[in-house]
Amino acid sequence: MPVSPLEVFESPLDVSAPPFLQPAMSRDCARKRLALTIPTLREAGNIRGLLDHVRTVLDPHGFDYQILVVDDDSCDGTAEIVTEAGREDPRVNLLIRKGQRGLSGAILHGWRHSDAEILGVMDADLQHPPELLPALLSAIYAGSDLAIGSRYTPGGALGGWSRSRKLFSAAAVWATWPIQRTGLRAKDPMSGFFLVRRDCLERVAFQQSGFKLLLEILVRARIQSVEEIPFSFGLRYRGASKANMKVGYDYARLLLRLYADRITGRTN
After folding, report:
1. Dmax of the chain from CA atoms?
2. Is residue 8 part of a domain?
3. How does the average pLDDT of the chain come out, rounded?
4. Which of 3, 57, 104, 220 could be a cystine partner for 213, CB 3.0 to 4.6 Å?
């Protein structure tokens, strides 16, 4: 089935949502709940350790949360590992996308399968430290619309990146500065580790392909406050990076669309 390049984010609380997505709790309770999406593509070597780590970090704080692993039909055992973890802990859920690729689309797919008011994402490759999650959640509970795990805010670091990769990343960040909103500019708009309030995203059309959903959220969503929390980007534990030429192409296409929207005044 063809996939539209743009997808409007709609809450499962909408009357058109399938019955299994209808809320099982009041909105007041859901407001305190986190839906953490972890997109995967051939992450069998990492995912179980990450799931255990996330739960070990969050459980002592008493946070209400669920973990949504969105797998792009890896066929490497990832699904089986997550299914087993879900048998042990019903807060762990597996969603499989067939015939689709794209990090942004996977994240949105996971978020639409939850009624939680706080939506989050982190990588499956152990480069994002779960220890940062309580600080990100605390920022949201304190009133921020968006809390970002940031490599570029003071105290953050890029880890063992090569000089060329650091230069490319800095250039990619610099290119976003004119389209980010004054007073809400993030130092790390390329981060893949963040939490956001669900109601800031409703009815906004997001690009499904590509890896930079946070940048779209910063530019297009109804964000009024942003907090960046520093972290040091880790090394991939197992598996191979998914970065390739298509990632660069999708980012360039996203930038062009966001610049065009800025010029024409389009907001959604």
Report:
1. 51
2. no
3. 84
4. 104
Q: Helix 103-112 and helix 213-220: axis angle, to 10°?
A: 70
pLDDT in tens, 184-200: 999 999 999 999 999 99
pLDDT classification of 260: cutoffs 50, 70, 90? confident
At residue 62, what is the residue type? Answer: G
Indicate the residue type of 4: S
Q: What pLDDT shows up at residue 31?
A: 44
Count of structural domains within the chain = 1
SS3 for 72?
Answer: coil
Count the residues in the chain.
268
User: Which tokens go with 228?
Assistant: 């960046």
First to last CA, the chain: 25
DSSP state of 101: -
Residues 112, 202 contacting (CB under 8 angstroms): no
Q: Is residue 258 part of a domain?
A: yes
The CATH number of residue 169's host domain is 3.90.550.10
What pLDDT, on the 0 to 100 scale, is given for residue 244? Answer: 53
The structure's pTM equals: 0.84
Is 3 domain-assigned? Answer: no
Q: What domain range includes position 202?
A: 13-264
Q: DSSP H helical segments within the chain, as ranges?
A: 27-30, 47-58, 78-88, 103-112, 133-141, 163-174, 213-220, 245-264
Distance of CA 190 to the CA centre of its chain: 11
